[in-house]
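Allow me, if you will, to draw on your knowledge of protein folds for a short while. I have a record of one protein: its chain in single-letter code and its fold written as discrete structure tokens. I remain grateful for any guidance, and I place the record below:
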Amino acid sequence: MLGDKIRKKRSERNLSLKELAEKIDLTASFLSQIERDLAEPSISSLRKIANALEVPIFYFLIDDEKSSPVVRRNERKTLKLPESHLIYELLTPDVNRAMEVFIARIEPHTGQGEGESTHPGEECILVMGGKMEIAVGEDLYTLEEGDSIYYFASLPHSIRNPGDTELVFLSSITPPRF
């Protein structure tokens, strides 16, 4: 499924495996394995692929069925990539919107797993449970349940859970990133 979607988007963009590989600094053979579902990309590799193909990351991970404007709790699309301590639950019906809203969970004493992140747009986060350390640019903030932060996502940022309990937060990003 993932491999088929990547291959389809790559073909729509008229890119060869080699051309896409050069754009994202991966090998064509590794991309071929991903497209044939013989290998799973890391979150950072999948993000590079999504950026190069100009689609949000969730595009590759959701079903293509017609979506309702309602997202039921038990029907949320979930993303947990290998070697990540972070789980995302998409609250919007799909990623074909101007904004993306999700709930994320990070295990105690871990971070988002990919170092600092930068992307176009703006982001607002509400901590729903646990404790968050978030670095935005040169500044480090500690947020607790009920606290929120709004920042320009083009600034380098990273999130860490310094606490002994799971960190749960709601995030709204525009334009969609995942």
Summary: The chain has four helices and ten strands. The CA atoms of residues 88 and 104 lie 4 Å apart.
